[in-house]
Amino acid sequence: MNVAFNSILNSLLDVFLPAECICCANIIHDNRFICPDCLQNFQPVPETLRLFEKKKKFGDKGLVQDFFPLYIFENHTEIQKTIHAIKYNGKYLVGRSMGRMLGQALIKQLGSLTPEAIIPVPLYKYRRFERGFNQSEYIAEGVSDILHIPLQTRWIKRIRNTGTQTHLSLEERQENVRNAFVSPCPQNFEGKHILLIDDVITTGATISECAKIFHKHGATSTIAASLALAE
Ligand SMILES: [Zn+2]
Q1: pLDDT confidence of 142, banded at 50, 70, 90?
Q2: Of 128, 133, 178, 228, which sees the most CB atoms within 10 A?
C-alpha cells in the first residue's frame, strides 16, 4: 500500500478506535499517545553526557554552538518504539506531541540563547514523497508551538538522497552528507540565530553539514536539538 495513503488511513483509524499506547499497546483513556508507565521509562540525557557528546560531535568551537538532545536512544526501548512509530507507522502527530515536550525542555535549557528561526533537517524530496511527511518537521512544529519561534521549512533543502546512514562510520557519514544541502533563499540567514531540529542525532555529521550552510550564508549561530541522542 502507498505509504502516504497508509499514513492517512492510520490517522483516520486513530480517530475512531480507542487510543492505544504506541509503545505497549495498552488502552489509554486520555488524549496522549504514550501511557504514563512507558513515559517513565524514557531516559533523559544527563548534563555530563550532554556536554561530553557535544564536544565529541561538534568540538569546542565548532559550527554548532550548543546541543540539546532530550532522551537517550537505545534499541528495544520505549524511545526507539516511539521514533519508529513516528517515522514508519505514520504516527506523525506523535512527532508534534513529542516536539512540544522537547520545546518545554528547551525553555529551561536555552537560557539567554534566543533563536529566531526553527529549521527541521529536510528529507530528500523522493524520500519525503514516499513517507508522506518529514518527521523532523512535525517535531519542529511542536517545538515552535511552545517557543513561539517561526518554523522555516523552506530555508534549506536536501538535493540528493543520502540513504540510510545506520551502518556508516563518522567519516563515512561526513563524506555521505557532504554538499547534500543547499539554500534557495541564502539571504534569509544573514545575522540569524538558528535552532536546527532532528529526530535522532547520532554522529552529528548531518547537523554539522546543515550548520555549514547556515554559516556560509551569514547565520550568527546554530543550536541543535533532537528527541533522541544515539551513540
Ligand atoms: Zn505504554
Answers
A1: very high
A2: 228
